[in-house]
Amino acid sequence: MRSPTKSPGEKSSYKGSVAPTWTTFAANLTRLLSEKLLAWGVEERGIRPVAVEDRTETYFIKIFFVWLSANMNILSFASGTLGPVTFGLGLRDSCLVILFFNLFCAVPPAYLTTWGPKLGFRQLCASRYTFGYYGAMVPGLLSLASGAGFTILNNIVGGQALASIANMSWTVGIVIISVISLFVSFCGLRVLNWFENCVWVPCLIVFVVATGVGGKHFVDTPTAPATAAQIFSFGATIAGNMITWGGISSDYTVYFHPRVSSWRLFVYSYLGLNISTITLQCLGAAVAISAPSVPAWEAGYTDGNVGGLLNAMLSPVGGFRKVLMVLLSLSVTAANAPNIYSMCMVFQTLIPSLVAVPRYVLSVFAVAVIIVLSIVGQHKFYATLSDFLGIIGYWAGAWVSAICVEHLYFRKGNFALYDTRSWNVSSRLPLGAAALGASALSFTLVIPSMNQVWYTGPIAHKTGDIGFEVAMAVTALLYIPLRHLEKVLERRLKEPLDLRRVESNQIILG
Fold first, then answer.
1. At CA 454, angle to CA 449 and CA 471, rounded to 5?
2. How confident is the model at residue 453 (pLDDT cuts 50, 70, 90)?
3. How far apart are CA 263 and CA 458, in angstroms?
4. What is the rounded distance in angstroms from the CA atom of residue 505 to the CA atom of residue 499?
5. Which stretches are transmembrane (predicted)?
6. What residues are paired with 256 via a beta bridge?
């Protein structure tokens, strides 16, 4: 039987019939891959709230190890060196600033970890109840920049350390660090928690050995008495390093059982944040002050190469130094993995349609972008570190202040006053104008209080950088009256709708 001839019109029809076949194949392949990943234990959930019945985790101390490991790395060490290197402080003054600013700034992120078991919300999702559905995109964007910035800095300093003991460039080291960080964050909280429970041990060993073999060279070079400008400006960088953890705090406790004691979680988080951070930042300050008196350290420290400095410190242990440096370079993955994991939640806050995209897909995209940015900025580490840590504390201070005032003052600290079913319904959430307005207006005083390389405000000329303190205080004071006004406006906006519903019901009943 002769096959029918095809007309030009039938040719396009044939092409059209192929497309669904390939589309179906791709959809089936994606589904099978997703099922396989889920079977392997990879976490798919993104910003969607965790239901009460799914909050079953009772190994609560794991949050202590998450924060302990996330801050026991080279970046904490490097941020401590800023005291003497950038702000000209002596060892005693550097350590005092590190101690007191960390103790103060760790309170908000430690407190916000207690929200996860009560609400089942990721942190930025919870901020919708203060900033509104669309308004929460603003702190979301700033949180994304902060998380990416920290990850880039970690990649650079980790790549430096890896390159210092291997015949490779910083670029190759950055890629290796990024791939390992991606694997941990890709798998989700189960693997991430296991990783954070273990990784602090080798990191601690490395820093103990480095202190043991290099401690005899520690000196405290005499310096002029510290000024308020030096103290508060260095304190601003310490605040930027610590307080921004608050933007992702509850991301790691959403699976915890709701009946866990909030005080217990707070203490675990507070200790985890402070023990590693304060210890390593003080060590970094001591080593930076001593480096000029030790030629090998000074040579390794050329161009702010923190990895080279630590490599020089470990030279007395001989060949074992390479093993220690590899472990030390990989320590930054303990900070990168949580940052990348939470960046996926931020993507879904900024672009709500991405809720349908599996979380692990977003982590691949995030790392791809971060690798490029890390390679571009790898030779400007110290300038970037100082400027970045100083700036990010401003927005974080305003954001923390607004959501805490909303929770403690307007909701009386009662989690039952959150309508958890409305997490993605803009009309049932606050307008967000009060939070955004209070935060924005606070910058009329924050800007004069800033002390940066490119700008020093008139207040900061006398006091040093007190921008983040001003942001917290002014936002809190402004938010209360603005939120009261916003509530009145919300009621008036809803009244016409309620009246229309009543009239409609009356017509139907009549």
1. 25
2. low
3. 41
4. 10
5. 59-79, 91-112, 133-157, 169-192, 199-219, 231-255, 267-289, 323-347, 359-376, 388-410, 431-454, 466-482
6. 57
pLDDT at 274 over 70: yes
Cα distances (angstroms) measured from residue 51 to each of 118, 182, 257, 270, 369: 10, 27, 11, 26, 32
Cβ(229)–Cβ(464) below 8 Å: yes
The closest alpha carbon to 47, from 110, 109, 116, belongs to: 116
Residue found under tokens 């009145």: 488
Kind of pairing, strands 455-456 and 451-452? antiparallel
pLDDT of res. 502: 47
Burial letters 50-67, b for 16+ CB under 10 A, else e: beeeebebeebebbbbbb
Query: Both tokens of residue 483?
Result: 């939120």
Spatial separation of the C-alpha atoms in residues 181 and 178, rounded to whole Å: 5
The structure tokens 């390939």 sit at 22
What gap in Å lies between CA 297 and CA 301, rounded to an integer? 6
d(CA 14, CA 408): 64
* Residue 452: strand pairing partners: 455
Other beta carbons less than 10 A from residue 433's beta carbon: 17
Handedness of CA 140, 142, 144, 147 (dihedral sign): negative
Token pair 């005899």 is found at 216
Q: What is the mean pLDDT of residues 196-215?
A: 90
CB of 149 closer than 8 Å to CB of 392: yes
User: d(Cα 471, Cα 458) in Å, to the nearest integer?
Assistant: 16
Region 177-188: what's the mean pLDDT? 89
* Burial of residue 414 (number of CB atoms within 10 Å: 0-12, 13-18, 19+): exposed
Please write the tens of the pLDDT for every residue from 237-263.
899 889 989 999 999 999 999 999 999
Q: How many residues does the chain have?
A: 510
State the Cα–Cα distance between residues 400 and 390, nearest whole angstrom.
Answer: 17
Asked if residue 93 lies in contact with residue 226, where contact means CB atoms within 8 angstroms, the answer is: yes
Nearest CA among 193, 249, 195, 258 for reference residue 58 = 258
- 29-38, 160-169, 292-301, 460-469: the lowest-pLDDT one: 29-38
